[in-house]
Amino acid sequence: MATGPRDRVVPHQIHVFVCHWGKVCPTKGSQELTGLLRDMLAARGMQDKVIVSKSGCLELCDIGPNIVIYPGDVWYSNVRPADLEEIVQSHLIGGKPVERLRSPKAADPASDAQQ
Ligand code: FES
Asked: How many domains is the chain partitioned into structurally?
């Protein structure tokens, strides 16, 4: 049986999207967040468990930088470099989202209905 690139893809348990290519979040440091988060995960040997992707605009520009994590559809806004350690420890390792960073979308019942 032939193997291709998809046969070698490691199934990640957690997928983090950082608004990286939008027009606003990069001006607020989102590109730095992407690099820092990847470094933090690599330092913990978690790169096979968690993948960090650069996303386009997540449509919450005014409260960026924004991050969304799956599974769970957990959105974080106004994320700063100093917040990443808590996100890694509490959410990505401990499985408990960081409530103080969750975006207003998370509190919107209409958005919950879409999940
Ligand atoms: S630029 Fe990041 S949400 Fe729009």
From this structure: 1
